[in-house]
Amino acid sequence: MSSEYYEYQLTIDKILDSGSRSFPNREIVYRDIRRYTFSSFSDSVKRLMSGLKKLGVKKGDRVGVIDWDTDVYFHTYYAIPMLGSVLHTVNIRYPLELIVKTILHAEDKYLIVRDEFVPLIEKAANIMPVGMKVITYSDNKEKVKSPISSADFWELIESNEPIEVSEDLKENDMATIFYTSGTTGEPKGVWFSHRKIVLHTLSVSLVGARAPLNLTSNDVYLILVPMFHVHAWGYPYVALLSGVKYVLPGKYDYGLILKLMDKEKVTYSAMVPTILYLILSHPDAPKYAHVFKRWKVTIGGSALPEGLAKKAKELGITVIAGYGLSETCPVLTTGYYNSLVEGLDEEKKFMEQISTGAPIPLVQIKIVDPSTGEEKERGKIGEIVVRAPWLTQEYYKDPEKTKSLWKGGWLHTGDLAYMDEYGYLHIVDREKDAIKSGGEFIPSLLLENAISLHPKVSQVAVVGIKDEKWGERPVAFIVPKEPINEEELRQFLLNLANEGKIQKWWIPDKFIFINSMPLTSTNKIDKKVLREMAQK
Amino acid sequence: MSSEYYEYQLTIDKILDSGSRSFPNREIVYRDIRRYTFSSFSDSVKRLMSGLKKLGVKKGDRVGVIDWDTDVYFHTYYAIPMLGSVLHTVNIRYPLELIVKTILHAEDKYLIVRDEFVPLIEKAANIMPVGMKVITYSDNKEKVKSPISSADFWELIESNEPIEVSEDLKENDMATIFYTSGTTGEPKGVWFSHRKIVLHTLSVSLVGARAPLNLTSNDVYLILVPMFHVHAWGYPYVALLSGVKYVLPGKYDYGLILKLMDKEKVTYSAMVPTILYLILSHPDAPKYAHVFKRWKVTIGGSALPEGLAKKAKELGITVIAGYGLSETCPVLTTGYYNSLVEGLDEEKKFMEQISTGAPIPLVQIKIVDPSTGEEKERGKIGEIVVRAPWLTQEYYKDPEKTKSLWKGGWLHTGDLAYMDEYGYLHIVDREKDAIKSGGEFIPSLLLENAISLHPKVSQVAVVGIKDEKWGERPVAFIVPKEPINEEELRQFLLNLANEGKIQKWWIPDKFIFINSMPLTSTNKIDKKVLREMAQK
């Protein structure tokens, strides 16, 4: 008398299924090049699965993707994991040598490559995994002529009938793999199961509906996080589950992005602070005041400088911060209003929403002493350690680093922060960026924030340099908005110190003025480069 | 080099933890008797866990609860599963014999009993499980004097320090068990794991935020589904996760409920149609027009009659329907607006929101031929079969009924319905209530709906009686609003038939006028009793 009970698996196809059934005519838009409805997109994904399967893609096979933020990439977020294979979102901002290294480390058997990246891959053909098949495509659907191309992406879709996921697709199967940007040391691989992605999607969807974002299925997303970067923070999955229109910008061109935002009535975006800065300071920006007024933005990846947040607010943009790591899928906290903050005055609410934020549903956070692991009191600085249903189980093929990542059963973020009286995190430093001066930490993010408040400062980054007397001392790199001298800045900071906003001994010994910040492959300020510059 | 990776479990404590951290000062209110914040409630739950543990409650032990909708019941929804023991929500509307039967079947080792039910349990003491311990309480915290009482509920909380959940609590552990109301045949036991409840909570929270309910953390819930009934549709868990104030009405007293709704600024409720009917027709109702204007309601448990829905709408109430079974945790569908319906005119949207609804996130629904299991086209009537991550794995200790429940890997609801062009279900009948006349089904719910539109009809139910010529013929039971005769009703239905809204041959052969409907233990109309009355 055996039962045919169906053990429901939390797999990515369930997101696509829910989205395409509840919001069949919601759109996915790629520039002015192609439009899909959720329903036609679902059909297209299932044809791609069929095409990939015929090409030989099997359960567990890694499939790398090298592309901008396109409709092709959006397909692969679903089709590859739904086939039981593993989506490797290759970091296209890496130097070629590192790209190849990650492809070899992940053991990619297939690579999907946009035409403009084909020459790059041709160059490395002889050091790629043996037998790797390359699928190429171009925007206009013309076949890419290259000796390395084994198949055309569009043909895989167009010459096959849709198939459904196999019964042996399980929620703990590997769905995605990618490499952390590695501003220090070698890139490390992290991977995520279907289950983790589904649960992350549910929680990120839930928290988005909270104030001040108040996102609904009538919002329109244009996400400015490159799709090779940490599931583009989960939004390609959140979009289907939450039923929102999704606009894909291709390669970032801020003039075009502003136009797209206007034309497609975009209301929501997510990005690192640098991108927000680049958009707001774009020469066309003044023409789009009406677009900014309806715009809601989540900033993550790096701390949101108060100066930038205030500039956004003045334009009518609703801006909050979020926090997470490659290791954490990534979202851990966002600046939604919890029940303690919702009743505060506007100014105080604003300061909380642009802080590192409060844990989203199912996330557990502790602030601990980095050496002993003991929990710190509210308000005290320590390392952020976390538990959530969507954290990476390991650094791929690296048991040693995995061990320290998961020391004591909590994932160690390596970020130093305190939790304020309302339950919001305030990151004061990456552990590795911390400046220790005279035995005490100088929280570089707080200091940067203070400097960013000066009206002539456009961007700022502080790093530590070795100092015989103090161990380390801070050096500030400044991109000025208009000419400014060191003395002016020093006086400004002294005033802040007198007001009790910073410590006097935090004031940098040296200010270096530069034209633009060196950026990492994920558009964060590259402090490694700055440290080298500062030592000289 | 072993890692201490933490395998995150989807257990109920994670809901309590998220709620009490993000919404620490949100309130739980029990009448005008006691108030908690989420934070103090969490502390109280953890003290209760400690008290129960000291009393001897172990992992896997069943703990029955016999109570109205009180703060005590609310505690047990968390504390019992969080201790690894199993919450048995005993159906207090059953006759004593059936109550005992379910307690024996579930093998309850502990029973938590409100004072007014103690005499009932005393009466059955000698047929209860051997060694079962009874925990009693009264609202005013006076100890209950009874030979069967082993412990006082409040003392368990007040004389113990909070404890945390054990490391060996796993997401697939049994969390709850209860018995389906059994309008036909013996009650059947269904049980749910922590994981199922957590996933149900996430999805129900998500869909509540969709139009037309648009629920946010600033809504105030007063749920009018008895807490012994299917997780009171999930709201005691949804409340903590979504951060809403929750008002508990105790034993239902509609005058008091109206007062509570006013005083506590209630904005949202869920209930069976009978309860909405009782509230709207309460003599005090006209005094609460301002309360109804802000009120949003989900109706489930039975079909929402169009007449009642329209009356609610006239009062300014936003009303939608929902659908689910004891076997399904329960929510499967609700009348939220999907992307096809959101653009329709108000009248059409209203008809969809009061239909059986559209699948909520992660639910998969098919309409199949009940005999062959083959999927039916859109618009055709068949049985609803479902998959979701929160369906019961079995009828407890009943492999035979389990087998037919899960035939073919889909849960069989036994409900006949069609799916309309917009993707909304329309239940036309419980399979067991279906009336087959001349080889064709008469959809009793559609017929009841038609009769309910007559202005003099207050409530209606149609059942089939045996007929020599046709097999079965319909008989209508009517609770009139004001005097009405059979001829008037027959003419009304003939007009509807001429307009093509019903079939002429559906018109009942007999109309029976009664003062009130017989109800089941969960306040649904008891068609079994009506069928007996009709045969006489």
Automatic annotation (TrEMBL), chains A, B:
Residues 447-524 form the AMP-binding enzyme C-terminal domain. InterPro entries: AMP-bd_C, AMP-bd_C_sf, AMP-binding_CS, AMP-dep_synth/lig_dom, ANL_N_sf, ATP-dep_AMP-bd_enzyme. One of its GO terms (molecular function) is ligase activity, forming carbon-sulfur bonds. Pfam families: AMP-binding (PF00501), AMP-binding_C (PF13193). The keyword Oxidoreductase does not apply. CDD domains: ttLC_FACS_AlkK_like. It comes from the Archaea. Signal peptide: none annotated. Keywords: Ligase. Residues 21-396 form the AMP-dependent synthetase/ligase domain. This is Long-chain-fatty-acid--CoA ligase. It comes from Saccharolobus caldissimus.
